[in-house]
Specification:
Blueprint lengths: L14 H10 L12 E7 L4 H6 L5 H4 L8 E2 L6 H10 L3 H4 L5 E4 L4 E4 L9 H4 L5 H7 L3 E6 L7 H6 L4 E4 L3 H13 L4 E7 L1 H9 L4 H19 L5 E7 L4 E2 L5 E2 L9 E7 L2 E6 L5 H12 L3 E5 H6 L17 E5 L4 E2 L12 E2 L5 H4 E2 L2 E4 L4
Parallel strand pairs: 1-7, 1-8, 5-6, 5-7, 10-15
Antiparallel strand pairs: 2-17, 3-4, 8-18, 9-16, 11-12, 12-14, 13-14
Helix pairs in contact: 9-11, 10-11
């Protein structure tokens, strides 16, 4: 039996719509009170399980853990899909960013959704308006605080369009930029993105001293962030996904028989999306994968994954972007078609359906914590 993409009452898709309702003074499912400024802090890679097990290194965040239950990140648990879900309020099956590496049916190729957008229009490939664009119709200003290197990227154009981009390269500049935005008149929705924890996790793993140091630095930064909030400012801290450490012995190199008839490999090592030649019997290939890897991965055809709700409601245009066969790692495994794949150097990884990856925090501060 396939797992659900989430077992939580609320998801990442609910966060910004509820913040916009709070800015307008409307009732909302999260019970957020009316505010003049709403700040959404996104900590890349901060899973709820990781935060809970390392709460002693994050006192600012930990004080909210008893009060604020986890929410679901959506699927796949990868940055491109999750941030698009956050900023559109829609699942991957509607916004169309269905994986780190996604299949482009028009050009019969796989494209990297963070950096490989050549030939793709961010305004049509990411198919729905952002909530920043919607906020503008309510006369709510939106500001996106993120590293300056992201300002002109196609991914930024896809998921942050409608927001004023404010470049900030480190913690001090992020806090200062936030303080300026909070001091400006009128209502505002402020997106505040922190990549440092994810970087440390990929490079060294979530069991490393480097990751603990990054968590402590993050918590200190967020202590400063809370300190600049005014009485009519609400803040939530959330994440795009969690993370698990994948030891080298858990790297899986599929046998050639499992790749027979596979034309393209998309997705990520924790969740392969296989696109097949026309003549391939997908059910027969799925059976071979289950016989070999069924104890190490959930194996689902595209139809099965959609029926299980992994991608939410799936629009017809998005459906071909999803692999005809998905291999979502259980436990701490990861799959590499190329034994020389440079991604094998990553320790911390994500993309699959384990609770460590799907459960993320939603912690309330300032006026939202009242």
């Amino acid at each position: 039996m396939l797992p659900a993409a989430t077992t939580h009452k609320r998801s990442l898709a609910d966060v910004v719509p509820n913040c916009l309702d709070a800015l307008a003074g409307h009732g909302n499912r999260m019970g957020l009170p009316r505010v003049q400024k709403a700040v959404v802090v996104v900590v890349d890679g901060l899973g709820h399980e990781l935060l809970s097990s390392h709460a002693g290194h994050a006192r600012t965040l930990a004080r909210r853990l008893p009060h604020d239950p986890a929410i679901g990140a959506g699927f796949p648990t990868t940055t491109v899909a999750a941030l698009a879900t956050l900023t559109t309020g829609e699942s991957a099956g509607r916004h169309g960013l269905v994986g780190y590496r996604s299949y482009d049916p028009v050009h019969d190729r796989v494209v990297n959704q963070l950096s490989g957008w050549e030939g793709l229009d961010p305004r049509s490939w990411q198919r729905v308006p952002t909530l920043f664009e919607s906020a503008a119709t309510r006369r709510v200003r939106s500001v996106a605080i993120a590293h300056p290197r992201y300002v002109d990227s196609a991914f930024t154009g896809a998921v942050l369009r409608g927001a004023e981009f404010a470049g900030a390269a480190d913690a001090a500049s992020r806090v200062a930029t936030l303080a300026r935005a909070l001091g400006e008149p009128g209502p505002a929705l402020i997106y505040y993105y922190v990549p440092d924890l994810d970087v440390a996790g990929h490079a060294k793993g979530v069991a490393s001293g480097e990751w603990i140091g990054a968590l402590e630095a993050l918590d200190a930064e967020l202590g400063e962030v809370v300190g600049v909030l005014g009485p009519r400012h609400g803040l939530v801290v959330t994440a795009d996904h969690g993370m698990v450490d994948v030891p080298e012995h858990a790297h899986r190199i599929p046998a050639l028989a499992l790749l027979d008839g596979v034309r393209h490999v998309a997705g990520e090592p924790r969740c392969l999306q296989l696109h097949l030649d026309d003549a391939v019997d997908v059910e027969a290939l799925a059976d071979r994968w289950r016989a070999s890897e069924g104890k190490r991965a959930w194996v689902a055809t595209r139809d099965e994954a959609i029926a299980a709700g992994w991608f939410g409601a799936v629009d017809a245009e998005v459906r071909p972007r999803i692999g005809e066969l998905l291999v979502a790692a259980r436990g701490v495994h990861a799959y590499y078609v190329d034994p020389g794949d440079k991604a094998r150097g990553m320790v911390g990884q994500h993309g699959s359906l384990t609770p460590a990856e799907t459960a993320i925090p939603l912690l309330r501060f300032g006026a939202f914590a009242a």
